[in-house]
């Protein structure tokens, strides 16, 4: 089989990319599914027993949800540099074991202080996972295929939120009392264990580079390596070449703001949408069971999943692929809580989710077209690190504004403003290559 491939380099590269996609992407989607669920499942725990049992206000819940990103911020760049040095297989397996242990320990948190401390440590242990995967994709997929490949990888976000909403609420509702624990504690326990088990799968199945892929025909492997090397050489001639150059690049810093704005919308929805849906009872006079709330929570993310994949295939200009959905999402979200019908409100929230999720995979085509090597490791890590500060600010600001005003409206106006500003900065970047 190793010598059976034939054809031009372009044909060989396309064939190699297809094989690599079939082998690597399903595993990466599964890993990110577990990762993202462990990150946001506190959003389901909060309104379903955790806040009442631990005595958390909306503001304190926002701190517990968001402090994850402070630890995450501190180690993103160093972790990505370690992955670049030691290889994705070893480093990602290490990350998964440590975050799984901490995520499981959250089931036994006795008070708000311990919960906040565990969320902070969870951020430290997860640092480097997502930007490491984005960096890893640059080792395997040429730029022409990267946005689409990233979109398939990032389908784990809406899948984990939609399916995770149903699974999490089912565990909370039917797992209450299991092992003598409250339902929300059982959820943390059962959803933390898979990452530890999957670390072994990563260790044995993930291949660091195409040159090491014995499962690729030799000619395809060589053609893919040549194509990727040519791309790296071209990027190195125009973009920053060093770690320091990437960290102080104005373009990298501008892209960090773009990512901040888009991800602000993602985390505001992820952490507070379950609470907003639970509040429909008071706002609209409707009543939903815990599982029904989980199913309603899933609706925007199912639509967003479709939007993510379709948009990555249809829109050609990477700037348009980011700016348009960010603008649509930013304009849609503040409208949601001014509507007089809960189903119309869900439509507005769904438009926001579609905008966020369509913009995210397309966004990563922008920095990876500008960075390579160690500069890519540092730049991607910095963008993800600074962008994910929104993961702290979005739940904190949304919760604090809800406490101060008595509803979620002002917090969602902030979400809209951040997303619209991300669209504006993306369009401004079209005029510069520095």
UniProtKB/TrEMBL annotation:
CDD domains: MFS_ExuT_GudP_like. PROSITE patterns: MFS. The keyword Signal does not apply. Keywords: Membrane, Transmembrane, Transmembrane helix, Transport. One of its GO terms (molecular function) is transmembrane transporter activity. It comes from the Bacteria. Residues 24-434 form the Major facilitator superfamily (MFS) profile domain. Its main location: membrane. The keyword Mitochondrion does not apply. This is MFS transporter. It comes from Saccharothrix coeruleofusca.
């Amino acid at each position: 089989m190793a010598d059976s491939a034939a054809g031009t380099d372009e044909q060989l590269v396309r064939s190699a990319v297809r094989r690599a996609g079939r082998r690597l992407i399903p595993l990466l989607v599964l890993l990110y599914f577990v990762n993202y669920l462990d990150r946001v499942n506190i959003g389901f725990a909060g309104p379903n027993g955790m806040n009442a049992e631990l005595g958390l206000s909306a503001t304190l819940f926002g701190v517990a949800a968001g402090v994850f990103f402070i630890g995450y911020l501190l180690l993103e760049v160093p972790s990505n540099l370690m992955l670049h040095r030691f290889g994705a297989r070893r480093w990602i397996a290490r990350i998964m074991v440590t975050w799984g242990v901490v995520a499981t320990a959250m089931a036994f948190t006795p008070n708000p202080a311990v919960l906040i401390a565990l969320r902070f440590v969870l951020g430290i242990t997860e640092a480097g996972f997502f930007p490491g995967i984005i960096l890893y994709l640059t080792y395997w997929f040429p730029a022409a295929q990267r946005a689409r490949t990233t979109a398939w990888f990032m389908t784990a976000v809406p899948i984990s939120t939609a399916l995770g909403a149903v699974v999490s609420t089912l565990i909370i509702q039917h797992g209450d009392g299991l092992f003598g624990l409250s339902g929300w504690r059982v959820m943390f326990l059962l959803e933390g264990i898979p990452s530890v088990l999957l670390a072994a799968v990563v260790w044995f199945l993930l291949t660091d580079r195409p040159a090491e892929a014995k499962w690729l025909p030799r000619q395809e492997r060589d053609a893919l390596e040549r194509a990727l090397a040519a791309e790296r050489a071209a990027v190195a001639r125009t973009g920053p070449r060093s770690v320091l150059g990437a960290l102080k690049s104005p373009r990298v810093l501008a892209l960090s703001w773009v990512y901040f704005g888009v991800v602000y919308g993602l985390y505001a929805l992820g952490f507070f949408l379950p609470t907003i849906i639970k509040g429909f009872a008071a706002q609209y006079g409707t009543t939903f069971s815990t599982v029904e709330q989980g199913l309603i929570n899933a609706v925007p993310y199912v639509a967003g999943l479709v939007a993510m994949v379709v948009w990555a295939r249809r829109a050609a200009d990477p700037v348009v692929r980011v700016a348009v959905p960010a603008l649509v999402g930013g304009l849609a979200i503040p409208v949601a809580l001014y509507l007089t019908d809960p189903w119309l409100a869900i439509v507005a929230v769904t438009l926001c989710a579609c905008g966020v999720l369509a913009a995210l995979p397309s966004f990563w085509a922008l920095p990876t077209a500008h960075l390579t090597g160690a500069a890519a490791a540092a730049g991607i890590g910095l963008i993800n690190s600074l962008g994910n500060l929104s993961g702290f600010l979005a739940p904190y600001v949304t919760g604090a504004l809800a406490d101060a005003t008595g509803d979620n409206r002002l917090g969602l106006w902030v979400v809209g403003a951040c997303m619209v500003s991300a669209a504006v900065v993306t369009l401004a970047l079209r005029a510069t290559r520095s």
